[in-house]
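From the shared-data thread, chain only:
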Amino acid sequence: MKKIIDSAAFRFAALLLLCCFVITSCATTSSAKIPVFELDAENGVYKVAAVSYGSDSKQKFDIYLPADYKAKDSLDMLVYIHGGAYYRGSRYDQNEICLELARNGAAVAIMDYRLVSPTNNIFLKDMFEDVCTAIDKIAFVCEANNVKLDKAAVMGISAGAHFALLYSYKMKETSPLNLVFCVDYVGPADLKNDDFIGKIEDDRFAQLGKLLKKRLKVEVMKDAIPYFIEYSPIEYLEKTSVPTICAYGKKDDIVPFSVCESLVKKFDSLGCTYELTVFPNSNHGLDAPEDIHLRDVVFDQIQDYMKKYF
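Structure, as tokens:
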């Protein structure tokens, strides 16, 4: 992307991202009917909306392009993955963020993916396959419309950050996108972490825990550690992994801070490039009044990474 996103506009979009926060493999894709980008004059962007990448109603994504994209040789892309504790959340929650970032020069994609429900057997394997398949088709739709993508970053919150990290670390060499960095807001990067597994056993998550244990055919969550290891981003982290921006709450009662400590220990042992901002007074929403100023720190890091890597 030749033009760096306007600082004030980017801060506004990033602030919206945090305010909208709800705590919330791969297959080659093609299509007989190629979606075509159309001008959304009201919002000042070109878009394709509700593009299907599977038969489930949740398997859809949107792409937004800046109004002047036809005059650009190439675009850099931000892929956003929503959170929601694996059983809720929607790409519509972040629609304004996509529009704001696209209006300021980026190609932006946001996806839905299948969620855990009592009426299905979906869990991490299926969700991650959705992320992979969606990104494959996002790249395909852009190429089919003669939209050249240069570099890309994947970002997410909570469960979405889990998949953003997993995709960025595991799929870097095979992704159709040229991945250059990742943004992780309170992502469960180490699923085998004792404190994280213990949270699933908490009374507040009793129904979800019961459902997952039945799905994984285990009596206690610790018995599912081999499954969790397979889908833990930390297991795929290498010295050459993409740089990562991380934000975690010291008092998080959803993704315990020890998950952050495990990730940082692995970063340091491998010599990885990363930025970490700890919100010392915040829970999962990173919203303690005493920590509000730290949002600007993370926003500055994201913009610095865009300048450096895009």
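Strands lie at 38-40, 45-52, 60-66, 75-81, 107-111, 149-157, 179-185, 244-249, 274-279.
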